[in-house]
């Protein structure tokens, strides 16, 4: 179901595509053909042929922190949190278990010689302003709890549960973590830099190595534009995670934190923020992070923004349980509002009951829940959990497929074996 906000967001995209057509936008590293394709998708121009989708190259994990097998599954340059390892860890995900999604590798940056450059024709007089970490720390500090969740979290379930073919990292449900982020409001930094009246888009860029696709195309640094409305709302430039300086793998010294939105919006190792009076494009809001496929208009949806609703049991896949009474635990979350209700089934979906919620619904956060279960018989059993959020969104039985496997939100059928 579409929220009024998501309607506004897609209207915004149509407006900026029109601006591009009128020569008023700048598309950085995006081909004219891609823009024409998006225009077609938005119903604004004739159809152009779809482009081949780049798939990320596999490489050794360029991740600094240790990745013990009990806590992580390494997937190329990325590390997925084992959901079972979150049992009993508290509300906030410990940094040592927090998933890492790197397009390339973690750059080891020294805060002492880091600066943030804020520039562009969306600033008054087209200024360029630099901030050191100390400059940022002199602005009012804000602490916010929020999850960071990859748009592709749950992607492998498109295939394993629905039989769909998708490209990208085969995450199960552990491409999410929730932390306490401390930093400054992006709004404060933009105002300090001198925000002009005509600014529309803000594009943070990472200092990690350029992203090169499997076919050898250098797409440049990881970057994705944000509409100014979101940038001024609840976005942080975070320098602490769970009360410690930001770890290397999560963006040290400073990352963008965009609550409730897909992970790619939260640019790590930010070095530069362009503030533009014209709409901006990058491959991360044109080729990637839109929905493509049979069910989508012409060749794509609007750029993805908010995360969907999901639930996960804190159990290994095929976990072995004995036949005694168990307190089973899990977590549920949504990008559209706090989770207010979780229904669970321990008999493959025949009967449902409410799980006990252990946290108040929290926007941009998750809730922990539990349910007691005494397995009725040995053998294979299927556990299900279905969350509902404050906006009334709930998890469907199946997710409409998209070629890149984003935004899986269906109820997951979690197998366990009773001895
Ligand atoms: N500079 C930069 N920022 C980035 C990325 C990246 O590769 N480079 N990956 C993005 C993606 S796709 C996700 S899901 C989140 C992951 O954040 P984490 O590694 O701190 O969990 O960071 C985002 N920010
Ligand atoms: Mo991501």
Automatic annotation (TrEMBL):
GO terms for molecular function: heme binding; molybdenum ion binding; molybdopterin cofactor binding; sulfite oxidase activity. PROSITE patterns: TAT. Residues 323-413 form the Moybdenum cofactor oxidoreductase dimerisation domain. Its cofactor is Mo-molybdopterin. One of its GO terms (biological process) is sulfur compound metabolic process. Keywords: Metal-binding, Molybdenum, Oxidoreductase. SUPFAM superfamilies: E set domains, Oxidoreductase molybdopterin-binding domain. Residues 103-284 form the Oxidoreductase molybdopterin-binding domain. The keyword Glycoprotein does not apply. InterPro entries: Ig_E-set, MoCF_OxRdtse_dimer, Mopterin_OxRdtase_euk, OxRdtase_Mopterin-bd_dom, OxRdtase_Mopterin-bd_sf, TAT_signal. Pfam families: Mo-co_dimer, Oxidored_molyb. PANTHER family: SULFITE OXIDASE, MITOCHONDRIAL, SULFITE REDUCTASE. This is Sulfite oxidase. The lineage of its organism: Bacteria, Bacillati, Actinomycetota, Actinomycetes, Kitasatosporales.
């Amino acid at each position: 179901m579409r929220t009024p906000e998501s309607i506004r967001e897609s209207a915004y995209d149509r407006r900026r595509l029109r601006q591009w057509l009128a020569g008023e936008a700048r598309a950085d590293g995006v081909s004219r053909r891609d823009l024409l394709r998006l225009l077609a998708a938005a119903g604004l121009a004739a159809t152009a042929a779809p482009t081949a989708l780049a798939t990320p190259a596999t490489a050794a994990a360029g991740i600094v922190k240790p990745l013990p097998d009990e806590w992580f599954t390494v997937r190329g340059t990325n590390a997925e949190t084992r959901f079972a390892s979150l049992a009993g860890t508290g509300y906030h995900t410990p940094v040592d278990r927090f998933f890492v999604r790197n397009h390339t590798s973690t750059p080891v940056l020294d805060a002492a010689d880091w600066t943030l450059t804020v520039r562009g024709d969306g600033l008054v007089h087209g200024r360029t302003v630099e901030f050191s970490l100390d400059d940022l720390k002199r602005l009012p500090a804000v602490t916010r709890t929020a999850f960071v969740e990859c748009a592709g979290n749950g992607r492998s379930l498109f295939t394993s549960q629905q039989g769909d073919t998708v490209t990208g990292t085969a995450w199960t449900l552990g491409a999410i973590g929730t932390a306490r982020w401390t930093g400054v409001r992006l709004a404060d930094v933009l105002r300090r830099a001198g925000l002009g009246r005509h600014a529309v888009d803000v594009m943070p860029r990472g200092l990690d190595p350029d992203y090169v696709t499997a076919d050898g195309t250098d797409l440049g640094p990881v970057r994705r534009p944000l509409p100014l409305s979101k940038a001024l709302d609840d976005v942080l430039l975070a320098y602490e995670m769970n009360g410690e300086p930001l770890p290397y793998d999560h963006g040290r010294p400073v990352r963008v934190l965009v609550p409730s939105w897909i992970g790619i919006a939260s640019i790590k190792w930010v070095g530069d923020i362009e503030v533009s009076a014209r709409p901006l494009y990058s491959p991360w809001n044109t080729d990637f992070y839109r929905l493509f496929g049979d069910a989508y208009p012409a060749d794509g949806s609007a750029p993805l923004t908010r995360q969907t609703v999901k639930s996960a049991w804190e159990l290994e896949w095929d976990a072995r349980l004995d036949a005694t009474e168990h307190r089973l635990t899990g977590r549920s979350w949504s990008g559209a509002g706090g989770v207010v209700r979780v229904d669970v089934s321990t008999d493959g979906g025949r009967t449902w009951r409410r799980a006990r919620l252990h946290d108040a619904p929290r926007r941009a956060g998750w809730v922990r829940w539990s349910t007691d279960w005494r397995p009725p018989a040995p053998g294979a059993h299927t556990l299900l959990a279905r969350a509902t959020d404050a906006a009334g969104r709930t998890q469907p039985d199946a997710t409409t497929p998209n070629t890149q496997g984003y935004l899986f939100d269906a109820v997951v059928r979690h197998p366990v074996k009773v001895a």
